[in-house]
């Protein structure tokens, strides 16, 4: 019986040992040597888990099957092929025989004998070589044939020895290539140093300060913990929770029909009107995603197109936003949700369940972290308790209670395959106008995920109402709202408009705790027409509560160049790969704008974490936190080689707030860093709510310069800079300005000249001498149809009276 799991017994001596390698490296080597058919006992349990995670399940072949296959291969190699013919036997029946031409048989015998002689000679030559000669000749492909030859002649021990040498040679080759790349990078840095003219001094400094044999300098802990990235950096869609069910959902639709429908719906090749952002889409009109879970009607093939084309990119962008929110809030946020009775309450208001799958994946990872007892030897020997924290495997992570917006029947049927313990609703409840006024004050959901939900709404007031309703549905004691849109200027404008609305009307900040009441707001209202805002705070990506520096001109702006957006790489599932007919790569970088904002808690309060933002935080971040000791970080493990700020520079008491900077006190890189020779330029959105350009040269700090060269788009920066200048957001590109300037100025419409033509009443002739143009006044004769006539439909005389011009 063939199994899909490796035996727990250790690897036999017939195969190379991977004991000295980590799990991922062992899995990669096994894949290269044996493909998807692994010998039994080759990998340990943890190594096979890594193999299954990276390459899928493998066929485990037993030793008996391997012997049978090797014998069959040997028999096949010895057999001579010829032409099959039928011959009459003595009893009159027909039997099949093989006809081989005499010349062909002689030639093949000669070839086989020559090959065997060559391999036998190679075997003798191999035995006479020493270790260095083995390494020299291992690149020859003949030695792979020699390994097969030895096994076919029942010389398994010698074949295993040869295979082990091949494996060790492969490892040495990989290490040599890695060291060669490192040397090449060091050479490039040395060339930069020569251009700057300071290479000799820095080499002397590095020899005095760096330990011998240290190839690379380690990343500063503040830089590592404030990176905008998932782990691993490429998001892989979960096979059991998303890829497998979606593959089953769309299996009933012809792939050709599905691809044609997706092209028709999402804008043609490359699907530019889905979550994808192909390069040619920059010249196309910006449009929202045509399919939305809130649509009342959707055909089967449209629903399949949504699940195949839109859901993978939505999952990746939502996962990136959730991971960044979790980094800023810390582990206590998810721990509190897991401790709730029944788990957290989740609302997916725009992705048909992809947001729920992403958040449950985050919950599962946090649950596994809390349940990890691998370091506790005594706990690993005990029996598993109810919460899975003492010995054995942990119990399954709580999934919480999910509610998903899916208006059409086709969408609900497909989403129900993905999700368990989920309620599907055709429309969002309206807590603002609910009969119970306390409903909107307390909310219901612990987290609301609304991807691609604002852009389909055509009017600004509809989007404001929608955001206000989502805010009322949010739990007033720490609920989190995550809004996501496409990473294009229109998508950014949707997010920036929602951010401005919430800051102006819902979220209180120091010095801005009240807001004027709207006329149509429900309730009795206040005497002075103002009301108090509630507690709240922006979690990501902004580290300020001022106006967005890239949204100085509200609404739509033609040719907007600078806008806040980020990207996340993910691995395309097989069905999306077929849908795009992609053959060169299986990954994609989805670009998105997002906002993560919390209701009911403000980390800036003194009873919370006392986070300080504004000009004070910006000035302190510019000075740098390089020499501040982080929590749980030993000083002897980190030895910076150059000061980020002068030892004699005075740091104000207000700027030295904490030794470990919180991520919400740091500026964020909103554009890819400009990495030049000898310096790095960072375009940052600061805690003051301004765009600034910070320059980090090599002379400022070796550690800061090294981390700046490794920094990426979206990272928070904590190591300071040498210079800073203000940077204005470009609301219109130079091309759009030039096109606008080339357009001819609009001319005022010429006013028609009206003449008064007098007519003799007795004769009916025109009096030519009396013709003159009318200047000033109004001329209204007869009944005037239009707006002014409609103002007095009741005949009560309240409408505007019609006046006639007097000649």
What's the helix and strand layout?
Elements: H1 23-34, E1 37-39, H2 45-55, E2 59-61, H3 63-78, E3 83-88, E4 94-99, H4 102-128, H5 131-137, H6 142-152, H7 156-196, H8 199-209, H9 221-225, E5 235-236, H10 239-249, H11 255-265, H12 300-329, H13 331-338, E6 345-348, H14 354-371, H15 377-381, E7 401-405, H16 409-418, E8 422-425, H17 438-442, E9 447-451, H18 460-473, E10 479-486, H19 489-505, E11 514-516, E12 530-532, E13 536-540, E14 566-571, H20 574-580, E15 587-599, H21 615-623, E16 668-669, E17 674-676, E18 679-685, E19 691-697, H22 702-710, E20 723-726, H23 734-742, E21 755-756, E22 772-773, H24 787-790
Parallel strand pairs: 1-2, 5-14, 6-7, 6-9, 7-8, 9-10
Antiparallel strand pairs: 3-4, 10-15, 11-12, 13-15, 14-15, 16-18, 17-18, 18-19, 19-20, 21-22
CATH topology-level fold name of the domain at 236-372 and 397-488 and 565-581: Rossmann fold
Supply the number of helical segments: 24
Provide mean pLDDT, rounded: 75
Largest sheet: 9 strands, mixed
What percent strand? 5-15%
Contiguous runs where pLDDT drops below 50 for at least 5 residues: 7-13, 100-112, 190-215, 379-393, 631-657, 801-807
Helix content: 25-40%
Number of strands: 22
Helix/strand structural class: alpha/beta
Any guess at the CATH architecture of the domain at 236-372 and 397-488 and 565-581?
Answer: 3-Layer(aba) Sandwich
């Amino acid at each position: 019986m063939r199994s899909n799991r490796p035996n727990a017994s250790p690897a036999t001596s017939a195969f190379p040992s991977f004991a000295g390698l980590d799990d991922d490296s062992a899995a990669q080597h096994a894949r290269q040597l044996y493909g998807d058919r692994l010998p039994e006992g080759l990998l340990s349990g943890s190594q096979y888990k890594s193999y299954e995670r990276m390459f899928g399940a493998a066929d485990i072949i037993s030793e008996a099957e391997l012997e049978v296959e090797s014998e069959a291969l040997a028999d096949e190699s010895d057999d001579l092929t010829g032409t099959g013919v039928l011959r009459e036997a003595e009893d009159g029946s027909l039997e099949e025989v093989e006809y081989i031409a005499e010349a062909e048989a002689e030639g093949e015998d000669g070839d086989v004998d020559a090959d065997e002689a060559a391999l036998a000679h190679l075997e003798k030559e191999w035995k006479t070589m020493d270790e260095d000669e083995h390494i020299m000749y291992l690149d020859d492909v003949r030695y792979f044939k020699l390994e097969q030859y030895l096994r076919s002649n029942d010389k398994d021990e010698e074949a295993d020895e040869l295979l082990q040498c091949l494996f060790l040679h492969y490892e040495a080759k990989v290490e040599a290539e890695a060291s060669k790349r490192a040397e090449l990078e060091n050479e490039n840095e040395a060339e930069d140093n020569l251009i700057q003219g300071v290479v000799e001094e820095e080499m002397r400094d590095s020899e005095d300060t760096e330990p011998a044999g240290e190839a690379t300098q380690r990343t500063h802990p503040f830089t590592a913990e404030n990176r905008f990235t998932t782990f691993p950096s490429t998001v892989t869609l979960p096979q059991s929770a998303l890829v497998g069910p979606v593959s089953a959902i769309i299996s009933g639709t012809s792939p050709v029909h599905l691809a044609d429908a997706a092209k028709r719906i999402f804008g043609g090749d490359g699907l530019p009107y889905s979550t994808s952002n192909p390069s040619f889409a920059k010249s196309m009109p910006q449009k929202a995603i045509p399919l939305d879970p809130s649509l009342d009607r959707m055909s089967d093939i449209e629903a399949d197109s949504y699940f195949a084309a839109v859901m993978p990119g939505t999952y990746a962008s939502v996962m990136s936003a959730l991971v960044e929110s979790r980094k800023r809030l810390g582990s206590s946020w998810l721990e509190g949700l897991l401790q709730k009775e029944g788990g957290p309450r989740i609302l997916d208001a725009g992705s048909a369940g992809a947001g729920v799958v992403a958040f449950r994946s985050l919950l599962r990872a946090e649950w596994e972290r809390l349940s990890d007892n691998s370091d506790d030897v005594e706990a690993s020997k005990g029996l598993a308790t109810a919460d899975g924290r003492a010995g054995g495997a942990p119990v399954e992570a709580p999934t919480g209670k999910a509610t998903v917006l899916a208006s059409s029947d086709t969408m609900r049927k497909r989403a129900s395959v993905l999700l368990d313990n989920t309620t599907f609703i055709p429309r969002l409840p309206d807590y603002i106008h609910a009969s119970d006024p306390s409903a909107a004050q307390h909310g219901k959901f612990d987290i609301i995920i609304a991807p691609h939900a604002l852009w389909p709404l055509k009017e600004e007031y509809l989007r404001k109402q929608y955001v206000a309703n989502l805010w009322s549905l949010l739990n007033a004691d720490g609920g989190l709202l995550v809004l996501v849109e496409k990473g294009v200027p229109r998508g950014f404008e949707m997010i920036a408009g929602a951010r401005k609305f919430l800051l102006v009307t819902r979220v209180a900040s120091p010095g801005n705790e009240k807001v004027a009441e709207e006329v149509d707001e429900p309730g009795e209202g206040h005497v002075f027409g103002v009301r108090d805002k509630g507690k709240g705070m922006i979690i990501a990506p902004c580290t300020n509560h001022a106006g967005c520096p890239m949204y100085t001109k509200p609404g739509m702006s033609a040719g907007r160049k600078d806008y806040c957006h980020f990207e996340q790489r993910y691995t395309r599932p097989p069905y999306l790969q077929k849908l795009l007919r992609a053959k060169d790569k299986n990954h994609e970088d989805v670009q998105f704008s997002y906002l993560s904002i919390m209701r009911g808690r403000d980390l800036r309060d003194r009873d919370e974490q006392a986070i300080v933002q504004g000009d004070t935080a910006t000035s302190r971040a510019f000075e740098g936190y390089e020499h501040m000791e982080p929590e749980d970080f030993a000083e002897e493990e980190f030895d910076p080689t150059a000061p980020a700020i002068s030892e004699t520079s005075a740091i104000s008491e207000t700027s030295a707030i904490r030794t470990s900077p919180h991520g919400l006190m740091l500026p964020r890189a909103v554009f890819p860093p400009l990495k030049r020779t000898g310096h790095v330029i960072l375009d940052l959105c600061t805690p003051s709510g301004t765009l600034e350009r910070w320059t980090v040269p090599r002379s400022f700090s070796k550690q800061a310069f090294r981390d700046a060269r490794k920094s990426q788009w979206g990272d928070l920066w904590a190591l300071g800079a040498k210079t800073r200048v203000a940077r204005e957001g470009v609301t219109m590109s130079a091309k759009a300005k030039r096109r606008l300037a080339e357009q001819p100025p609009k001319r005022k419409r010429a006013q028609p000249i009206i003449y008064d033509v007098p007519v003799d009443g007795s004769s009916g002739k025109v009096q030519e001498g009396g013709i003159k143009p009318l200047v000033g006044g109004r001329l209204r004769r007869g009944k005037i149809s239009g707006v002014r006539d409609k103002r007095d439909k009741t005949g009560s005389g309240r409408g505007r009276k019609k006046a006639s011009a007097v000649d």
